[in-house]
Amino acid sequence: MSESVDVLIIGGGPGGATAGLLLARAGWSVAIVEKDTFPRGKVCGEFLSASNLPLLRQLHLDDAFRQLAGPEVRRVAVFSQGDVVAADMPGLSGDAAGWGRALGREQLDAILLSNAAAEGAAVWQPWSAVALRRDGGRFECNLVSRSDDRTRTVSSRLVIAAHGSWLRGTLPTQSARHAARGSDLFGFKTHFLNADLAEDLMPLLTFPGGYGGMVHTDGGRISLSCCIRRDVLMRCRRHFSGNAGEAVCRYISSECLPVRNVLRQAVLDGSWQSTGPIRPGIRVGRVNDGIFLVGNAAGEAHPVVAEGIGMAMQSGWLVADTLIHRPQLAAGAGIDIGIDIAAASASYRRRWRRNFAPRIFAAGVIAQWAMRPSMVRRTLPLLRVLPALLTQAARTTGKVTPICSPSF
User: Fold this and answer.
1) Which residues contact 267 (CB under 8 A, 6 or more apart)?
2) Does residue 273 lie in a domain region?
3) Residue 197 CB contacts under 8 Å (≥ 6 apart), including other chains
4) Cis peptide before 277, with omega less than 30 degrees from 0?
5) Which of 11, 39, 321, 392 is in Cβ range 3.0-4.6 Å of 162 for a Cys bridge?
6) What is the pTM of this model?
7) Among the listed residues 149, 141, 146, the one whose alpha carbon sits nearest the alpha carbon of residue 127
8) Residue 54, preceding bond cis, omega within 30 degrees?
9) Contact 363/397 with Cβ under 8 angstroms?
């Protein structure tokens, strides 16, 4: 079977679904390929900062988000050894609901993708993209069903790669496999009930060789997510009982008393999830014109700043905005469509770097600080005197910097 569309989107998570929703609404023919069946869990902190509120309104999903998500996060904190330092989370200026909230990926991803379909995007799920090549002025992508042995070929003028960065594959947009290193970071995530965490607080957990976060999410749960170095993870497995996630949780609790206090009466809700290695960095410029990278495929900030979902959705908006203002790309009606595509690709990469490269740099600095107890100990006295530095750090990492404009 074969099909032809204006744009093929590989990956139906927040970045791909956002781009697909907006492009389909603007009249483009869109196909979204998603390998997993929803709802499905994801290793993710689940927090959407206030910078995403205007985008949710533009997607017509702000009411659904508010009804399902956890409470507003109005304070940020650092949990370190026996210490807690808290500060105000910056709010979105001029917005009555100006603070972020958390929503489980089981719900968020399903809402975004179903609304993209409602706007007219064709959704193939669960299907995997296994090969992507140019054929003249178009792309040809081979798909394989994950539920049976069906295959399909999709032809498109443009491709949006929204497949993340953690899984390796055969596509030219996917990262090559790297040799294992002790410094590799692995992500873990689970939920708890009955945890003793203030509803409006989102703490950064600091401990040797890793960092993490907790936040109230939907259904009265808290989400605990963390990253830990490979060498530290191996030591955890030797010294603490249980599976890998349980060993990591016991390690964090042994190194960070505030975490132990929060989880003292907590009950695990579901199982631990893990992924990795995570490789933060910028990748937006490493493929040919006509392929647009969004979300983690384009660039990944250390999860320490809890901006992964937001950056995915915002980059999905950014690519949609770039393309919608060039309708000749869908029609193929330009004098030289190749030049038009190259110009659109260059524009998107420039805008992406301007909006996201500073966040990735800031996240890297914070992550290296959080994983080194000696640095945290030296900094805490200053943070106690000037907690506004935490507020400013949240501002610097994009918590109140909307990217979208009322352009469509």
Assistant:
1) 192, 193, 194
2) no
3) 203, 214, 216, 222, 262
4) yes
5) 11
6) 0.95
7) 146
8) no
9) yes
Burial class (CB in 10 A: 0-12, 13-18, 19+), 176: exposed
- Rounded Cα gap, residues 354 and 361, in angstroms: 12
Strand blocks (E) in 25-119: 30-33, 47-48, 75-80, 83-88, 101-102
CATH of the domain at 316: 3.50.50.60
Map tokens 């979902």 to a residue: 309
Q: Is the pLDDT of residue 95 over 80?
A: no
pLDDT tens for 193-252 read 999 999 999 999 999 999 999 999 999 999 999 999 999 999 999 999 899 999 999 999
Looking at the structure of the chain, the number of domains it has is 1
Task: Note whether residue 79 is domain-resident.
Answer: no
Range of the domain at 166: 2-40+100-177+279-370
Distance CA 50, CA 108 (A): 16
Look up residue 286 and give its DSSP letter. Answer: S
Residues present in the chain in total: 408
Q: How far apart are CA 155 and CA 134, in angstroms?
A: 9
Count Cα neighbours of 95 within 13 Å in the Cβ-side half-sphere.
20
Element (H, E) at 127: strand 127-135
pLDDT band at 328 (very low <50, low <70, confident <90, very high): confident
